[in-house]
Design goal:
By secondary structure, the chain is α/β, with parallel strands linked by helices. The chain is built from 17 helices and twelve strands. Helix 4 links the parallel strand 3 and strand 4.
Length: about 475
């Protein structure tokens, strides 16, 4: 297996690969095949350079020895500048296609796209749609524009699409399909990728992108409200399912049911869970809150986990964002200042708001995807292959999966020891008691301040008759 890896700082590509292979993720692989790491070869390079910055020796090795190419590299940043997004997500794809033309024994190219590459459609088929711009002309134009001019053009290019990521992914699909008459090509479109489901270890995750970032924000109590709809479809696929699926596709497309040599387009596989095991965001958010009340985060918790969805354009969302995000963050920064620490909560909330705005497009609506090719792939696999490369998402129990992801965030991202979960639970209980007392005395003081005005209006009851109902409402 040859991996194109960029050197980072003082670490070579091979050192970075070795560090990954020595992680907990590959414990079972080391048991089954102690020398498996020797079969993984790092090829130093850089995507944005000509011929990916490979040496002559490495280039010749790829051309003469490789039979299947997986192109999974991309910039997944939603707010990426259009010039950078086109370079990485379109121009790099063109270079990869040219490389594949030179490979002597190429059996298949697997291009990983996204299920959200065509969000302008309600029903997304397993086909490559005509691009809104010619890929080659887009590359040429972006190459001649400076950043300022490209920024001015960006809204006109992206148009009704949510961001530059989905826009460039749709363009790249058309570019890939244009080479389908020259060698076998398949496009895999996964939806939102979550942590591992089963293999090699449940709940493994290595970054805060997507669902893991939401889990952390809710688990720490930093995020209480998010733009979206509870009844919208949460189309998440486990990363181990994506890996199994992507590995099975070249076998299916090049060996089991190869396309005709004169095929005019690439075979497309929509890899989504909504078509086989639908789950709503309401289930996800309740499961995250329940999981972090059962397994609280130990050191970074801001307040008890709780969560609401609201229409991003409604007054209700802006009101709750002010009450549950900005007011507590401002109060916390004031306390930080009193003890001589720099303020940080407002910055964290502002960053959170930007992320929520980016994700709101996907949490407020749903799409339907065709799954005919995926069903054919599953049916073609033998029983032993189905066990080895499990792609059947109908067996996923989503609350259990979400709980394993929340635990994975604690273990693999925050590096917390699960043996200390009882300490985190005690800390959460203390925080909840303090939160209750703080609200009680705060409301009591507020009512006493208003009491002279209320008595002039004829109010004669105890202040507690106002404090208790208000406290109950505030704790809901």
């Amino acid at each position: 297996v040859y991996l194109l890896v960029r050197c980072k700082g003082k670490h070579s590509g091979q050192e970075r690969v070795n560090e990954l292979l020595e992680s907990e993720l590959f414990v079972e692989a080391r048991k089954a095949c102690p020398d498996f790491a020797q079969k993984v070869v790092a090829v130093p390079g850089d995507l944005v350079q000509e011929r990916f910055g490979m040496s002559e020796h490495d280039y010749d090795t790829i051309v003469n020895k490789v039979s299947v190419v997986f192109h999974v590299a991309a910039t997944v940043k939603f707010t990426e500048h259009i010039k950078v997004a086109v370079e990485v997500n379109v121009l790099v794809v063109k270079r990869m296609l040219e490389l594949c033309r030179s490979i002597k024994t190429l059996a298949a190219l697997i291009h990983v796209s996204t299920a959200y590459s065509h969000t302008t459609r309600d029903f997304i088929e397993e086909t490559v749609y005509p691009p809104c711009f010619d890929p080659h002309k887009l590359i040429e134009v972006m190459g001649t524009l400076d950043s300022h001019m490209a920024s001015a053009l960006q809204p006109h290019l992206v148009a009704s699409r949510p961001n530059t990521y989905t826009f460039t992914k749709s363009i790249a699909e058309a570019l890939v399909a244009s080479y389908s008459t020259q060698f076998p090509i398949a496009i895999v479109r996964p939806s939102i990728i979550g942590s591992t489901w089963k293999a090699p270890i449940p709940g493994w995750v290595d970054n805060f992108n997507g669902p893991a970032g939401i889990c952390l924000a809710v688990g720490t109590g930093l995020m209480r409200v998010m733009p979206g709809k509870e009844e919208a479809l949460a189309d998440v696929v486990p990363v181990d399912t994506v890996a199994n699926y992507t590995l099975a596709v070249p076998w299916f497309s090049a060996v089991k049911e190869p396309q005709a040599k004169d095929a005019m387009t690439a075979r497309v596989f929509n890899l989504t869970s909504g078509s086989t095991n639908a789950c709503k965001w309401e289930v996800w958010m309740k499961s995250i809150v329940n999981s972090y009340q059962k397994y609280p985060i130990e050191n970074k918790i801001f307040r008890r986990p709780h969560f609401y969805f609201a229409d991003g354009d409604s007054w209700y969302y802006f009101f709750r964002r002010a009450i549950f995000h900005y007011f507590p963050a401002r109060a916390a920064d004031i306390l930080f200042g009193l003890v001589g620490q720099p303020p940080k909560m407002i910055k964290a909330v502002e960053k959170l708001d930007r992320v929520c705005k980016e994700l709101g497009f996907f949490t407020a609506q749903g799409w339907k995807w065709e799954n005919r090719n995926g069903q054919a792939l599953g049916a073609a696999m033998s029983e032993s292959d189905r066990r080895e490369f499990d792609i059947d998402m109908t067996k996923i129990h989503w609350p259990s999966y979400v709980e394993s992801m929340c635990i994975g965030v604690k273990k693999y991202l925050l590096k917390e020891d699960m043996a200390r979960v009882h300490i985190a639970r005690r800390a959460l209980r203390r925080m909840m008691v303090f939160n209750f007392l703080f609200k009680f005395f705060g409301l009591y003081c507020l009512v006493n301040m208003l009491l002279p005005f209320l008595r002039r209006r004829g109010f004669r009851r105890s202040p507690l008759t106002l404090v208790v109902p208000a406290l109950v409402v505030s704790c809901v």
